[in-house]
Amino acid sequence: MARLIFIILLVSLSNNALAQNNKTHVGRFEISVGAGVLIPVGKFASTSTTGFEQTVFEIQGDDQYDIRFFSKKNHAHAKRGGDLNIEINYLTKRNWVHGIGFGKSSNTVNLEKANIVFSESPFSQISSKIIHQQDFNINYLTYNLSYDLSIKKTSIRPYQKIGLSQLDFPYYHLEEETEWKISFIHEGDQPRSSGLYFESGVITNISLSNKFELGLNLSYRFADFDYTMYKRVVPGGSTTFIVPDQVNMRAIMTGFRLAYKL
């Protein structure tokens, strides 16, 4: 809520500034390409196995069970990853910058502690192991609002982004370590999960010429993604369990951007 209020105030102030000077404003567009390192923090980085014992339901019945699953809510086990982004911005005479942004980030998953838990199978005495876990691949589309403070050839630009994001379905493949290769799989579609996306940060730009700027970007971003898995044993079949879960993306991004002013 505080972030939404902050964004509304910035938009309001920006619109007032534009209205007061609409006769003299000559806008300038800017296109930038950025890349950086995405560092998981908080829930996204946590490698705790607390919460692996989940209460789940049969897909055809009301019976519930406490079974060990790779729950990512509050403990996503994300590793350091990367981010690529493109922005199209409009710079005003009053130093406000409006824009839209597109981006993609990716973080692999740390399976070490999870596989220690799964070494004791919840269904038998046979050891199990996660042999595949989908990376946390996130696409996002944002509205950007920032304020550009210029000092000679350097500028500082604090910004706020709000938008929509999508996460690739974070399925995993759990296999018993026997010659029979019995697996505990997700059954059904693997839809992307959607969620609101927020990012707060600051960019420090250095002018290279009248057209080009090189910037250092530092930001904090977060989004929550709900998804549901339907797990059963193959081959041989078993009761299918409904396993609701959530990925709480919390990360710090640091990187560079190259901007071209039209």
From TrEMBL:
<keyword id="KW-0732">Signal</keyword>
<protein>
    <recommendedName>
        <fullName>Outer membrane protein beta-barrel domain-containing protein</fullName>
    </recommendedName>
</protein>
<feature type="signal peptide">
    <location>
        <begin position="1"/>
        <end position="19"/>
    </location>
</feature>
